[in-house]
Amino acid sequence: MTLPGRLRPWFRRLPVVTRLVLAVAITMSLVLTGAAGLVYWRVRTALDQQLNDDLTTYRHSLDQAVRAGTRVPPGPSGSLQQVLDAHGRVLRSSDSLSHQPLLTPAELSAVSRGATIRRDVGSLLPITPGTLRLQAKRVTADGQPRIVIAAVRRGHRDEALRELLAQLALASGLTLVAASYVGYRTARAALRPVERYRSGAATLADGAQNLRLDVPADHDDEITRLGHTLNHMLDRLEESAERERRFVADASHELRTPLSLLRAEVDVALHRPRSAGELTETLRSVDAEVQRLIDLSNALLDLEELGSTQHITRAPAELAHLIAAAVAPHLRTAELSGRTVTVDAARVTVDVDARWLRPAIGNLLDNALRHGRGAVRLTATVHDGRLRLCVTDEGTGFPPEFLPRAFDRFARAEASRTSEGSGLGLAFVHAVATAHGGTTHAENTGRGASVILDLPCRPGHEPGRRVR
């Protein structure tokens, strides 16, 4: 249904139920008007055809009687006749006409020239008495032109049509009321779940917790699917809110510790005069805490950027070169601590986002060097279009209670938050894997800890097999 431009803003401001009922009412009005018009036209055509047939037959009888000069035969019920001369004088007329001419001067002139006149006298609505349908034609009798007018009363025909109009109007009105009522009840029933969902959302906006919409399990329509979608959205919102609460609590704790240490160092330095060596040592301590704050801020920003990115930018990269670039910054650290880093990487080209994968590998190595013991081994294999990176060490492994939350933000195996690291390294690795559509896994091998990064890579093999 298309509305005029001026009515559209007004229509859109109406409630949905009102709009639906109006749309149903207007559409049904058009349909009923069309149907009533078709019925009326068919009935009127049939009645007119019968009336015209009777009138034509009666006029032919009049023509023959006038030509022969015989008595005018009786016509159908309600028939009338009038015979005029060429000048329009009434020569013969039915008693009820009182010799009143039925033709206008223009019609009389047209018939005198040989035309046949057909017209109605009186109207259907408003009701007028003495309605007629007449035919007039010129005939020749005894060498003189005569104008024969045959007419029949339309009273029965008009009464039938008026009764038909009244019945069609009544039936259409009742049908329109019934259709509008059914449309109203149907719209209310269809939108009742939406109103229930709206009330639930309003309750949630008022601070309600753990709210879920009551969605019937045995239905599968658009409204039901909307309810399931909203419940899924509420689940995600609740999870997001819970993560945010944990993040704020953990981040505030993480930031409070270095800030408190900074304040303590500054207070001690200001408490009494210090020597140049003591001030230098204090500044070194302050610098370490500032660097810790910078690292923590950078890690949080990286996680936020990675989490808010709708998609990563994949590009072909040589896996061996990617691994070498990620391992190089950690070789010096391993050498200073008397440990080794061994790399076993497939010689293939992988389709990944090296910007994020490279620091993720670095975080795995940093975690192994920082918290593990012995040699660190990094293996990178590609099979069935998936890249599997595994970093192992020879330490004591993860505490069993830590494994389920190893990839959570600020999660640490040590109870103290003053230990090295921010607790964001493995969380960043997990975020990179998720962005690639992959997974992460941490486990104890019996000879140390193992962290596995598995993600799709769509590789293209090159000559050679492995680089060590």
Please characterize this protein's 3D structure.
The protein is of the alpha+beta class and 468 residues long. Among the domains are: 212-307, Signal transduction histidine kinase, dimerisation/phosphotransfer (DHp) domain (Helix Hairpins), CATH 1.10.287; 309-467, Heat Shock Protein 90 (2-Layer Sandwich). It is 53% helix and 19% strand. It is built from nine helices and twelve strands. Strands 6, 7, 8, 9, 10, 11 and 12 form a seven-stranded mixed β-sheet that branches. A hairpin with a 4-residue loop joins β10 (439-444) and β11. The longest helix has 53 residues, at 16-68.
List the helices and strands and how they pair.
Elements: H1 8-13, H2 16-68, E1 79-84, E2 90-93, H3 105-112, E3 117-121, E4 132-141, E5 144-153, H4 155-205, H5 222-271, H6 276-308, E6 315-318, H7 319-336, E7 341-352, H8 354-371, E8 376-383, E9 386-392, H9 425-435, E10 439-444, E11 449-456, E12 460-467
Parallel strand pairs: 7-8
Antiparallel strand pairs: 1-2, 1-5, 3-4, 4-5, 6-7, 7-12, 8-9, 9-11, 10-11
* Helicity range: 40-55%
CATH superfamily of the domain at 309-467: Histidine kinase-like ATPase, C-terminal domain
User: By helix and strand content, what is the structural category?
Assistant: alpha+beta
Largest sheet: 7 strands, mixed
How far apart, in Å, are the first and last alpha carbons? 72 Å
Separate helix tally: 9
Output mean pLDDT.
Answer: 83
| CATH topology call of the domain at 309-467 | Heat Shock Protein 90
